[in-house]
Amino acid sequence: MSAENAQAQIELHRKLAPRYQERYAHAFSRVFEEDWHAEILSHVPKDGGKICDLGCGTGLFLADIQRRDPSAVGIDISLDMLLVGRETMTDANLVAGNAERLPVRSGAFGAVVCKGSLHHARDHVGFVENCRRVLAPGGVLVMSEPCNDNPLIRMARRLLYRQSEHFDEGDEGFRQKRLLALYEEGGFEIVQVKKYGFFAYALCGFPDHVGILKYVPGNAWIARLLIRADRFLCTIPGLRILAFQVVVTGRPRADLPRP
Ligand SMILES: C[S@@+](CC[C@H](N)C(=O)[O-])C[C@H]1O[C@@H](n2cnc3c(N)ncnc32)[C@H](O)[C@@H]1O
């Protein structure tokens, strides 16, 4: 990551931190986030060592992770995002740090999970290599990233990232193939690839952008129905490539030295 991008991300997330409070303040958005978190955590072996949430933001995912691993650590480049988390998570292990120069000893974690942080970096391979460095042998890296396999989503994201002040114009979504290549270039073997998120993602995931469900009675139940529909759609070959996110699980290659 260039120093300019690190600074740009810090400034961008200074503006976004209050929006994340709004994003996660609704019953329906929390129902959706819990499902998304459960999906990511389902790829982390139980009792597999300490978990690191890299790019933890305001810590909503970290709070769910802590129910499984109270010693879990959240790392983020934005102090402003971490400070929002600190308001409610008084005992959490929250650390300010850049994913490309992690202030953590090698082999410290049994799992690194990232929910939407890689696409903010510029040196994507460096980011993934750092994840490999801090993983213990046999550890796992699970990333959920915006997926650009759907041409309509790809165009909409490109427009949004260029035009909206809520994104940095250098941020980019990945096609699944590119994300898998980044894992491989970073020294990982792929364990599993899963698509995630259609209607629940679009309608419940970002109430600070798409707020329609805020005004609908019973919205938490609607969120549960949409999540079921999304999970069904993700089982259909040919349709699932159109999903908004891809969840990739990898393990450090045993035949390569640790970076
Ligand atoms: C889309 S937000 C997601 C936050 C959180 N994972 C969530 O789901 O609410 C991306 C997060 O990645 C962080 N980030 C961006 N670049 C980073 C880097 N190089 N190192 C660590 N964190 C970074 C941002 O500050 C931001 O909190």
How would a crystallographer describe the biggest sheet?
A: 7 strands, mixed
The side-by-side strand order for the widest beta sheet comes to: 3-2-1-4-5-7-6
Name of the top-level CATH class: Alpha Beta
Judging by the overall fold, what is the CATH architecture?
A: 3-Layer(aba) Sandwich
Q: Write down the Rg.
A: 17 Å
Q: Tally the helices: what do you get? A: 9
Shape verdict: globular
Characterize the structure shown.
The chain is of the alpha/beta class and 259 residues long. It has a single domain (3-146, 175-252), classed as Rossmann fold (3-Layer(aba) Sandwich), CATH 3.40.50. The chain contains 9 helices and 7 strands. The chain has helices spanning 3-23, 27-41, 60-68, 79-88, 124-134, 151-163, 176-185, 199-204, 219-233, and strands at 51-54, 73-76, 93-96, 109-115, 135-146, 188-196, 245-252. It has a 7-stranded mixed β-sheet, sandwiched between helices. The radius of gyration is 17 Å and the shape is globular. It starts with a helix and ends in a 7-residue tail after the last strand. S-adenosylmethionine (SAM) binds at residues 1, 9, 13, 55-58, 60-61, 76-78, 81, 98-100, 115-117, 120-121. S-adenosylmethionine binds next to helix 1 and helix 3.
